[in-house]
Fold this sequence. Notes:
By secondary structure, this protein is an all-alpha fold. It has two domains: 1-38, no CATH class; 40-265, no CATH class. 77% of the residues lie in helices and 0% in strands.
Amino acid sequence: xxxxxxxxxxxxxxxxxxxxxxxxxxxxxxxxxxxxxxxxxxxxxxxxxxxxxxxxxxxxxxxxxxxxxxxxxxxxxxxxxxxxxxxxxxxxxxxxxxxxxxxxxxxxxxxxxxxxxxxxxxxxxxxxxxxxxxxxxxxxxxxxxxxxxxxxxxxxxxxxxxxxxxxxxxxxxxxxxxxxxxxxxxxxxxxxxxxxxxxxxxxxxxxxxxxxxxxxxxxxxxxxxxxxxxxxxxxxxxxxxxxxxxxxxxxxxxxxxxxxxxxxxxxxxxxxxxx
Length: 275
């Protein structure tokens, strides 16, 4: 589970609630009754209902997959470029020794549909340009679908503050129309209720929608990097590249820290005494 995301969300909510209830100048510095000032069902209905309505109207197809999006976001590391590199090196060694047809068994063991498709394309002796075209198109289409989902949450992040302002305007208009019938002492509380919708909109945008969009964007980047590694590796295997040189090429897709770690691990294995 993505513990960092959950911790971040809980900390954000905690600090907001703590800021609402704390007063270090008072004898009792924690006053939970202040939370009641920030509860207004009508304001919540305007912000949450309006934002969700806009998101559904703009992205009707993607809305159906929201539970799946949360499942993807909350999972721990799903895509492992290091593992992909090791698998590709193993495939390169098998192909170099026994030929490309020997990779069919390895393809059937793959759980990743993209990786399996890539292996089967070279096993079937598909033209290299065609292999690259098919796999590149697959990567581009996958990224495009991911960007549509990310855009949905970004739309929600933009819509929530807007509906917060709409709610505030509604509250102010009602307050101004009611000035003749009410005393001047009620202006402060009425103004507070009017501003609550702005608070709800900001919280919904920056505590809910923005983190979801950012986490899904990170997952997209991880998957695309892994697929690009697979594409590069498969093309090199088809051309008969030396597994040692292939490893060095594939490591360029990873961050320097990961490269150093992988290089150190490999050197350690080479330095082990063999009996």
